[in-house]
Every structure is written in structure tokens, then in C-alpha cells.
Amino acid sequence: MNQLRSSPEDNAVGIIDLDPSPHADEEAFPKKMKDSTLFEFYGFMIYLVSYVAFFIYLAWAILPESVLHSMGITYYPDKYWAIALPVFFISLIPFIYLMLFSWNLMNTPPLNSENVLTDEYAYLADHIVTDFRDENIPELMDLPVNLINHA
């Protein structure tokens, strides 16, 4: 790898050889670049394993017990769990949304709390822009709490 060099005393420009070792190309890449291929490999393997696990699940859920026994598979969970677990996980999604909403409501300070006051860096709006006929974008301002809750 070559680089231009200039010396201030004589304004001369020269070329310096910056390859001190034969393995300079390996050292030129940061460690993150080397580790990214490892993450890609693990991600691809998880992708493949998830497909294999899904097909095993479908085979267990759809195939009759006689077919599973003929294949030598005799130890498996009850077919009830083929429906119960997906229903449980699907019903868990609205529960998580409800709990997150409740948690946020519980942790929101009341309007008369000192935590909702503004600081010296706030740029409070003294008027509401309702006329957008100009081509300009209105400036960004903080809205006071009493203006927000004035409904």
C-alpha cells in the first residue's frame, strides 16, 4: 500500500511503502468486519434450523399416529399441544400490548407533578400554526402541558 508524502521543509513529494509485513492486508480490516461473517453464518444457521423445526412440528401435528409409529417415532407429546401452544403464543401478543400500555400509564407522572415542568432549554410555542400556505416548514417548538390537555 503506497501513500503520498510531502515534507514541509523542501516541498518535496514522495511515495512511502507502508506494507511492513506480508500479512498487512489481513490487519487492514477491523475486527468487526471479520466478526460480521460469523454473525451472518449464525443467522443463516438459525434460519435453516427454524425451517427444519417447523417441518418437524407440522409432521408431528398433521401425520396420524400410525404413520409416526411406522417411522419409528413413538415418544412425542400429545397432539393437544399442537394446538394449545400456538393459541397460547398468539393470545400472548394482545396481553403484552395491554401490559405495556398499563405499564406506561402507571409510570406517567400526573399533570401536577414537577416532572412535567419544562426546563431552560425548552422552546415553548406561544401560538399554534394553522396556516400552512407558505412553502416553509414551521419551526419545531415544545407544547406546554396545558395546551396539550385543553380538549
Automatic annotation (TrEMBL):
InterPro entries: GPI_Anchor_Biosynth, PIG-P. Pfam families: PIG-P. The chain crosses the membrane at residues 41-60, 80-100. It is an enzyme of class 2 (transferase). It is found in: Membrane. GO terms for biological process: GPI anchor biosynthetic process. One of its GO terms (cellular component) is membrane. Residues 40-150 form the PIG-P domain. One of its GO terms (molecular function) is phosphatidylinositol N-acetylglucosaminyltransferase activity. Its EC number is 2.4.1.198. It is a multi-pass membrane protein. The keyword Glycosyltransferase applies. Keywords: Glycosyltransferase, Membrane, Transferase, Transmembrane, Transmembrane helix. This is PIG-P-domain-containing protein.
